[in-house]
Design brief:
four-stranded mixed sheet; Ribosomal Protein L25, Chain P; 10% helix
Amino acid sequence: MATNFSLNAKARTDAGKGASRRLRRLDNELPAIIYGGAKAPQNISLPQKDLIKALEDEAFYSHVININVDGAVEPVILRALQRHPSKTFLLHADFQRIDATHKITMRVPLHFTNQEKCVGVKTEGGVILHSASEIEVRCLAKDLPEFIEVDMTEVHVGTILHLSNIQLPAGVESVELAHGAEHDQAIVSVLSPRGGAAEEGGATEEA
């Protein structure tokens, strides 16, 4: 994990919708909560602008974040984010504590590389169809990847790549595959020039 994310926050004792509205309106602060682990849940507030800026980085959603709460650092992951339905500001955020000895489950984005070099597109005239943009993984916090890379260079027309075809980093496992082979979902395929369904092993799969 090359990226480091840190946020400064303050503990808050006032709760309820009225207090949260005052925080957002008067102080431009975002009400949030940190929960999990052996500690009790803790209500916090942090600057709206700091979190909005951090959210511009895709890695923030699948990365360990260090939140400094009045001088005490809590390693957490972002679990939930509530946005205003029509305006640009945030309403609430949920952070979950993590530790070095327990595995966490996270959704990690897929990065499809070398699509312009894909043999199924470049020489066979096919079209790439993405079936998933992220996958759920389980690992220790130290092994959590910012993204999973899927190299499209040697993918031919009619090929469907599934979860089992993706090479995961050391220490990282697919949550879906842990439930059995029947959960080996399609990730990406290269359709024939006709735009029809891709075939794999003689079996046709609906695009």
